[in-house]
Amino acid sequence: MTRSNSFKTQAAATLRRFPFLPALAMLALLLILNGIAEPNSLTVRALKGVISTYLALVFLSVAQTFVVYTGDIDLSVGAILSFVNVSIVVIMSQLGSAPHQVLIACLAGILIGALCGLLNGFVVAGLRMQAIVATFATSILISGLALWVLPVAGLPAPSLFWKIYGGRSYGIPNVFFFITVLIFVLAVIAKTRLVTRLLAVGNGQLTAYQTGLAVTKIRIAGYVVCGIFSSFAAICITGDTASGDPLVGGAMTMSSVAAVVLGGTALSGGVGSAFGSAIGALIIGLISSLVFYAGTPSEWQNLAQGATILIVLMLGVLASRRINQ
Amino acid sequence: MARLKLQKICKYYGATTALASGDLQLDPGEINVLIGANGSGKSTLCKVVAGSVRPDGGQFELDGNDIRLNDPQEAREHGICLFYQELSLSGSLSIAENICLYDLPVRSGALVDTSRMTETAQSYIDKFASVVGEGFAHDTPVNKLRPDQKQLVEIMKTLASEARILIFDEPTSALDRSQVECFFSILRELKQEGRSIIFISHRMDEIFEIADRITVIRDGTTVSSHPVGETNQETVIADMIGEHPKATEKKAETTAQKGQVTTRYLDVENLSGNKLKQVTFSLGKGEILGLGGLHGQGQSALLRTLFGAEKRQSGTITLDGKSLRSGNPRAAIRNGLSYVSGDRVRDGVISERPILENVSPIHFIKEGKLFAFPQTLGQVVIPALKVLNTKYAHLNNSINSLSGGNQQKVVIARWLTNPPDILLLDDPTKGIDLSAKTELFALVRKLADDGMAIILYSSEDAELLAHSDRILVFNNGSITRELVGEDKNRFNLYQAAYSGAE
Questions:
Q1: Which CATH homologous superfamily contains domain B261-336+422-436+448-502?
Q2: Which end of chain B has the least Cβ crowding within 10 Å, N or C?
Q3: What is the ipTM metric for this complex?
Q4: What is the pTM of this model?
Q5: B414, B354 in Cβ contact below 8 A?
Q6: Mean pLDDT of B54-70
Q7: Taking CB atoms and an 8 Å limit, are A200 and B102 in contact across chains?
């Protein structure tokens, strides 16, 4: 009795330190299921395919997390992704495709993402509008800008771009390096003062204000970081699709929110981890590949995918509830 | 020269005046106790000093200079820090993070320096090491703590500001005696260092123990401010209520002579559960049974278990000859039990909803009604509120528009719509002003005289001694002593509470 209790408190403590553990277990389970459905799905080549396709969503979900930390939400991440995608493709087509010019285009893209985040932060935290409505409005606005920059999809990105993204170094796919760097960066970011402050604001804006924290500035910072990570996602999608498309990100916004929740972050704010969101995004990727490998007829694929996401969400919620009781 | 001088500070929220003319003077190395009824403006005045409420007028002088604070951050920069009555803690963050949140130590520019943070936090935790209780480590998240432990974290957080001016707005409401004593010894050290302290409390004995100066506020106006040597309890209370104390304050000692239970109504045998060990007692009709002892020794657990809000592991509860099966609050209500908690926000108030809705739920459970018509409900609700002299503008106003004392009256009125047989009071006067307390206990006595059986737990010993017929002293989950008749005095209560058993 006491033994199982002490085990429970220990499990709860571990879960508090690493809120992404249930998601990690789910990811492992999905990998195994994928392997059973189609043994070839576990080859380096197949995994590279999954990661290349979903790395953009991984970054986008990480971006969303920094806003969700404070209890806010950003429904414009998909639009920011599209806007940055078309912007860098257009800049490169104007400047040229030498390495330093590609780098300039990417930096410009990151700046654009940061500015979009600043706009969101100003509207939500500065003007105190409802995050869900305000960022929905800015998402339409930013999509409009993307359509203005590139009205029709299809402008190709320079070959340097997708060759790096899809290529290999020392025989290992480059996307594996990207994801390793991301994990390292997230581990460092999790230790920053900003994240602790974001979580404090998520726990209660009034208490954070009374503590003497600059709540408005902190929330705006969250949106700016979100914008920057959204532009990283845009760079990934440019590498994956090798072209500009003003509507590419639209459908990804809701997936990013789902990934955040799958990763163990509370939408009410205050608890969570960006690493968990990255895993959540990969879970969504593996679910759709599982549905495909399991040979689901195409007309049933959406239904199967949705149901599986629901089941995974439920398992995650049940697991953490059991432990925290 | 005074370190802090406030003159004629006022603050209005729409038509209501929170503060009409607040004056306050604070010298270096002084503890100034602020006292006044609930809703008299103490908390507002403190928040003005701490920058979280901007005054609508008046003079604010710090070290002789006129200043204006726009937010708590600026107040911190001026060396002012406030302990918030409603606490300003982040639930999912650890104790250490909460203590250091305003000024998180960093290394390499932006990363939190965990070891330095832990070290700083630990130095403040160590000051309270002997009284924090179990499950209190620097990495424990705050939402896993008991209310008294949370209050200690807020105290540590305030101390960690190392500010010149510290304001404590009811820091001791959830603390037990040993915790209060530990805190007071730290306050005295701070005073020696020359810090200035503003202290708010409703407990008279505490106030005279710690104060250098007592400032009384009534209806948003500072009415008096005297050094502690030049005033006494009666004067302070007279200043608070604005009239001289009536000599007709009779104690209910006569009924206390009854001593033994004549008609056994509720029988509890060997009740065990979370925090409860083999509790046995009985209660008669018309009796007020007090539960005493240090804070958190099982008094609340007993009341919550009787009410079905906490699980019973073993033991029997017999009500009027019928054995009660372990159930839930809904079943307990049907059996004639009722429960009023001092933790209004958690257990009582239906936040943001109208007063009408806050009074009616029990009526609905007991009458099994399907529809609600405001007119007919009003006939039930208004008399219940009237019995308690509840002050409210309109039944449709949100309950949050009322002061703490009036909110509690609304919660009690909820039970009076359909009077219960047994009333369980779990520290019902926590954070309520003196006049509301007096009214409340007068009502409790009247209910007992009408035949209701009442169990009262209060964290204030004076209250317990004055208003209960018999006292069971709790220690570590079990009853260690029963105080009846002549034995029922402060000395015996303290002795039983502190030494454990007899």
A1: P-loop containing nucleotide triphosphate hydrolases (3.40.50.300)
A2: N
A3: 0.85
A4: 0.74
A5: no
A6: 88
A7: no
